[in-house]
Amino acid sequence: MQPIVTRLPDTFRWPGGKRLAVIFNIAYEAWSDGQAPGIGPMGNVLKPGFFDTNAHSWASFGLVRGIHRLLAIAEKHQVKTSVMVNGVICERDPATVQRIAQLGHEIVNHSWGMDVIPVYFDEEAERANIRRNHELLAATAGVAPTGWISPRGTGSLASSRLLAEAGYTHHGDVNDDDRPYVMDFGGKRIAGIPLTMDVNDLPICVRYGHGPRHMLDIFNDTFAALRDRETAPLMLDVTAHTHVMGRPSGAWVYDEIMGIVKRSPEVWICTREQMARHVLKTLS
Question: Other C-beta atoms within 10 Å of 271: how many?
Fold first, then answer.
């Protein structure tokens, strides 16, 4: 089923009549048992069939230290973030998942693990994965997630529809707009909120090998362009992965960016859930 898509007009505004919205994402990620990221900080891939202990240990930093450092930064600025959480983390660190919810941050369903990507599933298996992680996150956090982002932002061709049918209000597996939009599947509505790569530590620092300061420069240039060169209603999300910018070498950039946005009264700072509610209500 192809959805009816409604996109935001130029006259649309965020709460308070603001034209710009900023979301702060935290990617709190893990891999299934026996799995590791496809590439680690050394940059060279091992021969097929060998477990990459370097990449596995590097990624595990996010659960040990990174999440706590980034949450502390958010608390310092009194900013509520949208935290992508893999279901497997509920088994490995349930106390932190609970704490994220208790602090008032949004928990976004992020599949079972980073290696469990919806595009690999048939429709029934994808439904089961959504349901499994939804129930686990809700039971652990005490709050049911209303949003979804697939690992690497790669849903299947059916993901939007299946999430809408499951009652989700938003997902981030879209990159075809610089504004959120509404997808209607026969009366089941869901907001597509872009997961932008403009200010995202993983591609900037890992894939392209830039230092953390480069992300700050990109943010400053992008933020200036949004404010000074555009007139349309726009959004920008700032993403930090707990195993990348959860380290002292990079966390200061997330801190700096959050401070800049907090000092900008013309910006609505929100979570993905808050953005979805506003868009779905406005475009009803």
Answer: 23
pTM across the whole model: 0.96
Tokens 């726009």, located at residue:
234
Hey, how many other C-beta atoms are within 10 angstroms of the C-beta on 275? 24
When computed from its CA atoms, the radius of gyration of the chain, rounded to whole angstroms, is: 18
258 lies in some domain:
yes
Tell me the three state secondary structure of residue 148. Answer: strand
In three-state secondary structure terms, 197 is coil
Q: Report pLDDT for 43.
A: 77
Tell me how many domains the chain contains.
1
Q: Please state whether 153 falls in left (phi above 0), alpha (psi between -120 and 50) or beta.
A: left
Domain containing residue 145: 4-33+51-282
Q: Distance between CA 111 and CA 146 in Å, rounded? A: 13
Tell me how far apart the alpha carbons of residues 236 and 255 are, in angstroms, rounded to a whole number: 16
Q: Going from the first residue of the chain to its last (284 residues), give the mean pLDDT of each consecutive group of 10, the final group possibly shorter.
A: 94 98 98 90 85 94 98 98 98 98 98 96 97 98 98 96 98 97 97 95 84 95 97 97 96 98 98 98 92
191: exposed, middle or buried (Cβ count in 10 Å: 0-12, 13-18, 19+) = buried
